[in-house]
């Protein structure tokens, strides 16, 4: 079955008091290709010597290849960040391809014909905003809010997501809470979720 494609614009919507804090700093040179071999520690990656830069530093091949969705959540994320394209360094952008098996999910994280998407607003409202996307639709997840996607069709689905960072990372909520090393105290989690400690322990054993 042909893949159905939905475009998700993961656009960071934020109101900042200072324009200098609204985006990553503007580049002061033509480019700053990441030097993965550098031991310099900084907020970002050190620049490669411009004389050593090649066309391959600005290219990535493979976004057309379907990801293997044979896993517990039924989805696979193929990232295209500064790790894959060193030329993205300092540009403040990246993207991903997400493949979904039927009823596969891209689980809650901090970011065929139909794809269910949604996010939850901050306390105290905790409003759940959700929508069913069709082929060609675009949906925006506001920056910092927990969000998810789920393929609710009967064939495979593909989404292309744009992100507002060269290296956005991902924090999967369930893995973070129940799969931390060492474990978060079962007493603490039981109180936070208002459940019995045995339920917390059972969840921790799954991660």
From TrEMBL:
Which PROSITE patterns does the record match to this protein?
Answer: GERMIN
Give start and end of each Cupin type-1 domain.
61-201
GO molecular-function annotation terms?
Answer: manganese ion binding
* Database matches in InterPro entries: Cupin_1 (IPR006045), Germin (IPR001929), Germin_Mn-BS (IPR019780), RmlC-like_jellyroll (IPR014710), RmlC_Cupin_sf (IPR011051)
Amino acids binding oxalate: 106, 111, 116
Q: Which GO terms describe its cellular component?
A: apoplast
Paired cysteines (S-S): 32-47
Protein origin, superkingdom? Eukaryota
Major subcellular site: secreted
Q: What is the protein name for this chain?
A: Cupin type-1 domain-containing protein
Task: Give the species.
Answer: Linum tenue
